[in-house]
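call fold(seq) -> C-alpha cells
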Amino acid sequence: MLVFADGTVLGTIGGGETESRVITHAMDAIQTGKSSLHSYTLADPHRGDPGICGGTLEIFVEPIMPEPTVIVIGAGHVGKAVAHLASWVGFRVVVCDDRGEFANPEQAPGGDDYLVVAMEEIPTNFTIHSQTYIVITTRNAEIDVKGLPALLATEAAYIGVIGSRRRWKLTQDKLVEAGIDLAALARVVSPMGLELNAESPEEIALSIMAEIVMLRMGGQGGRMGDRGEA
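ret:
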C-alpha cells in the first residue's frame, strides 16, 4: 500500500482499524524520513488491539523520500567548493547564480543542474522539497534580502546564509521591515556550518557540509573521541 503526503492511499492492507493506524504511521514516516516496524495482535479491541480476527500482524513502514539535494546560491569561491564537496558526499547538486559566467560546469564543477536566475526565482524553476538543503553564499546582503522570502515559503530542510552575525542581523532587520515574520526567519541558519576555525573556501565548505550531514543523519557534532568507552 502506498500512502501519499496528503493522506490518500493506493492499494490496501485489508482496511479497518489496522489500516487506519498504519496510514498514521506512514504519515509520520514521511515527516521524519525514518522506517519503522509495527506489530499488532488481533484479539481484543477493549485491550487496544485493532481487530478481533485472531493472530498477529507485522507491518513495515518505509518512506520513499526525494533525493537529498543541495542548492548552492552564489557560485563564488565558497559556493564552488560547497558544490564540489556536496557532490562528492552523494548529494544532488544545483548551482544557482544570476550571473551566467558563474553558474556553469567550468566555473563550478560537480553540479547536476545549473540555474542562471535570481534567488527569488529559484522556487519557480526548481522543485524544493523536504530533502532540499539551501546554501546561500551570495556576494552581498541585498541579494539575500530580495531573495529569501521566496525560499522561506518552501519546505526546504535547511536554509543557511554565509557571513558574520552582523551581516545576518542587518539582513534580518531589513526583512522584518519588509514584513517578514520573525518566526519564519528563525528557520535561517547564519552563520552556517560547524565551528572548525575554517579559513580557506574548502575548509568553510567542509564546515557547512558537516553541519548539513549532521542534521540529515541526526548527529550531534561532537568529537567521537570525547564519548569515552562504549
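The chain has a mean pLDDT of 90.
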